[in-house]
Design brief:
By secondary structure, the chain is an all-alpha fold. The protein has three helices and no strands.
C-alpha cells in the first residue's frame, strides 16, 4: 500500500485525531485533501526516520528524478537543510 492509499484508508476509517491541534480530523475540513492531514499516527512512518511508506515515497521520487536518494521535509528550508545534514552523516 503506498502513502496515498494508506492516507485515504485512514481518512475513511472515521478515527478522530484528538492529539492534532485545530481541526482534529473533523469539521469543515473533512473532505480531501484536508482529511489526509495527519501527524504522529500509529502505523504510519516517521518523516525524520523513514522506514516504510515515507521511505518508499522518497525512493520513488529519487527514481523519477534520476537521483540516488531524495528527502522529504516540511515547515521550512531550514528544516530541510538540517535533515539533509543528518541524512549525509
Amino acid at each position: 500500500m503506498d502513502l496515498l492509499e494508506k492516507l485515504e484508508a485512514y481518512a475513511r476509517s472515521g478515527a478522530c485525531s484528538m492529539h492534532m491541534p485545530g481541526h482534529k480530523g473533523a469539521g469543515p475540513g473533512t473532505e480531501l485533501p484536508w482529511a489526509l492531514d495527519i501527524t504522529e499516527i500509529d502505523g504510519f512512518d516517521n518523516l525524520h526516520d523513514a522506514h516504510s511508506v515515507l521511505r518508499e515515497a522518497m525512493d520513488r521520487a529519487a527514481g523519477l528524478w534520476g537521483s540516488v536518494w531524495s528527502l522529504s521535509a516540511m515547515d521550512s528550508r531550514y528544516e530541510a537543510d538540517l535533515e539533509l545534514l543528518e541524512e549525509r552523516e
